[in-house]
Write a structure and sequence with these properties.
Among the domains are: 8-92, MurE/MurF, N-terminal domain (Udp-n-acetylmuramoylalanyl-d-glutamate--2,6- Diaminopimelate Ligase, Chain: A, domain 1, 3-Layer(aba) Sandwich); 164-312, Hexapeptide repeat proteins (UDP N-Acetylglucosamine Acyltransferase, domain 1, 3 Solenoid). The termini are far apart. The chain is an alpha/beta fold. It has an eleven-stranded mixed sheet. A ten-stranded parallel sheet has the order 8-11-14-17-20-25-28-31-34-37, with no helix packed on it. It has four helices and 39 strands.
């Protein structure tokens, strides 16, 4: 492993972040860390006012803040946007790994494959017939790229990724280890006493700028294509079934399942372990909370939670009622007994 640009003066770091420096700029900085764990040559960051009290015991050389602190003893970098600046600092001090270059001699490449001279193919990789790989793209060790598949420019497939035949991956995509693109979907028909697989003759299209985590599966379509929209980000352990259409700039978190032929609009956010039933349309900008299951079409901009998923505010009201159910059940028994007593024959006798 090569080391990053090992040290920077705090004043130089401020310049790179376009930050206002308050305090000594001659300190030497070699990294970034949390308030609790930062050492004397690292900067920390204050992401929330609730952590302000921890600064007094921090060993950090300096702190990144969005607004200057009046009673802070350590130097400050006042940044315009904390998340943007934190990403910049993390990239600046990230480990610089030795890049994979060229075609490894242990890669297997079919003669009809077309690989740009600037692409890189790792050891043990298989590149199938008529595959096309664009400039600057890296195919990691032991990847398999099936026949007629196309991968654009500056994309990266980490080790052990499998791309089946007739799939298309765009530019600047990242697909992490052990993910599978284009496997046959889970589509069967019960005929003559057994489940028979329905052929899936379509493909998968992954548009530009898509990131896909590890151990995720995106199935090929029966007809046409399963489509992942540009700029979408998909976490680890996600299942996207055949003929799903995922819009642009969606966020799909871990363990989400999206069933066949579901259609998600642009900017949809799916919380952890949530799901969408087959043939359901989810409107653009919808947010589904953790473990929500969307079973029917929903309009754009909804915030949903629960099983089945409903408006999160209504779901919160339902949950508040749910926790009171044991006490309500006791009261109901008392009331039922009282009603029985009031309606008993001896209480209904007409006075003489």
């Amino acid at each position: 492993m090569n080391h990053p640009e090992s040290k920077l003066l705090l004043s130089d770091l401020a310049g790179r972040l376009n930050a206002q420096l308050i305090g000594d700029g001659s300190l030497s900085i070699s990294g970034v860390n949390t308030i609790q764990d930062a050492g004397p040559d690292e900067v920390c960051f204050l992401s929330s006012a609730k952590h302000l009290g921890k600064l007094s015991t921090s060993r950090a050389a300096a702190v990144m803040v969005e607004k200057a602190l009046s009673d802070c003893m350590m130097p400050q970098l006042v940044v315009g946007n904390m998340n943007k600046s934190l990403i910049a600092v993390l990239n600046l001090f990230a480990p610089k790994l030795i890049p994979q270059q060229g075609i490894h001699p242990r890669a297997v490449i079919e003669p009809t494959a077309v690989i740009d001279p600037t692409a890189s193919i790792g050891p043990g990789a298989y590149i199938g017939h008529s595959v096309k790989i664009g400039p600057g793209t890296t195919i990691g060790p032991n990847c398999s790229i099936g026949e007629n598949s196309i991968i654009g420019a500056n994309s990266r497939l980490d080790a052990n990724v499998t791309v089946y035949h007739n799939c298309k991956i765009g530019n600047s995509c990242v697909i992490k280890s052990n993910t599978t693109i284009g496997s046959v979907g889970f589509g069967y028909s019960f005929i003559d006493g057994r489940h028979q697989l329905i052929p899936h003759n379509g493909g998968v299209i992954i548009e530009d700028g898509v990131d896909i985590g590890s151990n995720t599966c995106i199935d090929r379509a029966k007809f046409g294509n399963t489509v992942i929209g540009a700029g979408s980000k998909i976490d680890n352990l996600v299942q996207i079934a055949h003929n799903v259409t995922l819009g642009r700039a969606c966020l799909i978190t871990g363990q989400v399942g999206i069933a066949g032929s579901a259609r998600l609009g642009d900017g949809v956010v799916m919380g952890g372990r949530s799901g969408v039933s087959d043939n359901v349309t989810v409107g653009s900008g919808t947010i589904a909370g953790a473990q929500a299951v969307i079973v029917s079409d929903c309009e754009p901009g909804q915030k949903l939670w629960g099983v089945p998923a409903i408006d999160w505010r209504l779901q919160m009201r339902c949950m508040n009622v749910f926790k009171d159910l044991p006490d309500m059940a006791k009261e109901l028994k008392k009331l039922s007994k009282r009603v029985e007593q009031l309606e008993s024959p001896k209480n209904n006798q007409v006075g003489m």
